[in-house]
Amino acid sequence: KQWYQRRVAITAGAEDKVKALEAELTDINNSMKKMEAAEGLQAQREDELDAKIKDLSEEKTDLHIRAENAERQIQVLEENIAKLEKEVEDEQTSHADTKAELAAVNAEIDDI
Asked: Which of 6, 50, 100, 106 has a Cα-to-Cα distance from 35 of 20 to 30 A?
């Protein structure tokens, strides 16, 4: 009888231990599922960030090209400005010469 009661007690203890281990296993499985879901979200976030990096790199390249084109246009415009300023200076000199000639002709006419 003692032997039987002892076996019942051992069996009950073993069953309690099995239940505790099953609960722990369930907790571990739940934790793994959460980690797998989090990993999936992280992988998705990483893919999104990679795509954004690619887009920003392409945009940077485009902006760099546009900046180079703008610099060339500025250089051309500055050359045109310099040319036009030279033409204005030449015209002002020519106008001053013409004005002086006209003054001389007027002085000659007045002397007549």
From this structure: 50
